[in-house]
Design goal:
Layout lengths: L17 E3 L5 E3 H11 L9 E5 L6 E5 L6 H4 L4 H11 L7 H5 L8 E3 L4 E3 L1 H9 L8 E3 H6 L2 H6 L12 E3 L4 E3 L1 H7 L1 H4 L3 E3 L4 H74 L1
Amino acid sequence: MSYILKCTMCSKVSTNQLYSLQCLHFLCKVCLECSIKNQTDAKRKQSDNVYLHCPTCDYCTYLEYSKVSQAEKLCKMPHILQALLDLQYGLLSPDCVVCRTRGSSTKSSFWCFQCLDHYCQECINFHSAMPYFDEHIIYSIEEVQKDPCLLTRARELCDTHSNQLTKVCYTQGMACCDSCISSDHVDVCKGGHKSIEKGRVTALVNPKLSHLKSLLTKVQQELRNEEKKIIDVERETTDFFTKEQNILKEKSHTLTRILSEKTDRLMAELSKLC
């Protein structure tokens, strides 16, 4: 996964705060802000687009100038990729999200289904004491490890509003959350929605996740093979130049010796003539 989920600009691997370009390569928060800052100069017109150039594939992701301030929201990673990240790292007891924001590193012991975050014992106690979170479902890391599908079910979210998918829209052919229905396409669909059966999204998403994981595994293997080829070529190149340098040194020593011998003989002959 580290071969795929890394910033395409600085090449740093990150398990959080990655933002997706339209080509599905990623930028970290620092590089995203830097790219936007370089594009939004004082001369740019309000009608212009801001283009974020991908160093990996040269594809340009464009944002409307008026929406540049929402770049982090517009470029957020799709939830299906977030689910892959969760399956990769969320089962390994990652650091507590609250402690990490405070600059410390504390291994988590609990995971919140609604928050999609990991907490240590102290922070989960504070989390559970808040009235706003009293209906949140908390699982221990051991429970999540026994049932990894919890991670994928928690990511059955709308990419636009980050709410749970609750309806199927037959007109648009997509799953919707309550905010989609109330704000985005209710006028188009005329209320033509049907409630999603419990577990239906999981049944539909899991095969796609499995296929995506197999593709990622294949890509990782191909990248490892290419990396091995590059290492072999670098080694062969180093061996070639080392061999050539040794040959040149040997020839240089031979020429120096011959020149020295001829110089000595010439000086001897000159001394006899004198």
